[in-house]
């Protein structure tokens, strides 16, 4: 009886060992694409990225008046010396999506819970919470409150909560605190595409869309590029002979 | 610039090859004459690796004080084009092509530069 029990036990152990040594099943393919990587705008697309000409944007009278009063430092009618561009006049953060139109690269880091977008310029960043509901009344910030859900291979990002002091691009396209951006982020071949729809009843009479296309950056190394008001005022002092309005670092 | 300047070429061409890296910070059209492209041989008087744009001071007369102040792109952008903080130094004789400042301003935005040892770099 004991011998039979031992034999049975050995057979069971061998069976278990054989079962355990069976190759593990191949990991399941990821449910969604991984957007991680370093990205940069294509050459020749530098001034305003993919935003349409301003005469194609459906401005409300308030926004049209505000745009007309601005003095951008780039594009048509540029006036760098006397610009009202808050990113130059005050060295404010660029805000979104203007920061993505900067020719420096950005990096996407995707985790299970978040997609982080890290811009090389000024070391600005935003986080896109994945599969979480949008907050009803988020804090107003430079880069908004963004949540994302997957629609097949496309990440659909909903963002609100933007400070109204930023420009949407270097031409001075304005918005209010009610800005709502819906982005559809997807790969197209080796490129990455952000299809954006802007809604803002205070600034636009109807939603309008734009696409920003990025190519893989050849080198993913992120440098430190932090631009300060002292940098701006020093540049203006040297190149435009403008006396700094405040003491600056030299 | 005086006649004894080591000016090898001062040409005006229809050129709208804006220094793209400069556009990251500001458009060039309101402070530089983008229809003009000037090439001169000059001595470097200063080279400042700084934001928003790297600066090169030059003297077409071989002097030690800056007579023309030129801007390049931002440090990371021109680094991608082969520039480093040691590419040039005061005393180097370089050949530089730039869009000159409007209204006679002694400034410019660099398009390309040939170092003393013959290396050509785009800005």
Polypeptide structure, described:
The complex is a heterodimer of chains A (250) and B (123). Chain A is an alpha+beta fold and 250 residues long. Helices cover 18% and strands 25% of the residues of chain A. Chain A has a nine-stranded mixed barrel with strand order 1-2-3-4-5-6-7-8-9. In chain A, strand 5 and strand 6 form a beta hairpin. In chain B, a hairpin with an 8-residue loop joins strand 3 and strand 4 (68-71). Chain B has 123 residues and is mainly β. Chain B is 4% helix and 35% strand. The A-B interface holds A 43, 46-47, 72-75, 78-81, 83, 88, 102-104, 120-121, 170, 219, 223, 225-228, 231-232, 234-235, 238-240 and B 20-21, 23-27, 29-31, 50-53, 55, 69, 71, 74-77, 79-80, 107.
Helices and strands in order:
The complex is a heterodimer of chains A (250) and B (123).
Chain A: H1 2-21, E1 37-40, H2 61-69, H3 86-89, E2 106-110, E3 114-119, E4 125-130, E5 145-151, E6 154-160, E7 180-188, E8 191-199, E9 208-216, H4 229-240
Parallel strand pairs in A: 4-5
Antiparallel strand pairs in A: 1-2, 1-9, 2-3, 3-4, 5-6, 6-7, 7-8, 8-9
Chain B: E1 9-11, E2 37-48, E3 55-59, E4 68-71, H1 75-79, E5 93-100, E6 107-114, E7 120-122
Parallel strand pairs in B: 4-6
Antiparallel strand pairs in B: 1-2, 2-3, 2-5, 3-4, 5-6, 6-7
Summary of the model, kept short:
The complex is a heterodimer of chains A (250) and B (123). By secondary structure, chain A is α+β, with helices and mostly antiparallel strands.
Largest sheet of chain B: 5 strands, mixed, barrel
Number of strands of chain B: 7
User: Which stretches of chain B are low in confidence, meaning pLDDT under 50 for 5 or more residues running?
Assistant: 1-22
Enumerate how many helices of chain B there are, as a single number: 1
What integer is the average pLDDT of chain B? 85
Largest sheet of chain A: 9 strands, mixed, barrel
Q: Given the C-alpha coordinates, what overall shape of chain B results?
A: globular
Major sheet strand order of chain A? 1-2-3-4-5-6-7-8-9
The percent of residues in helical segments of chain B reads: under 10%
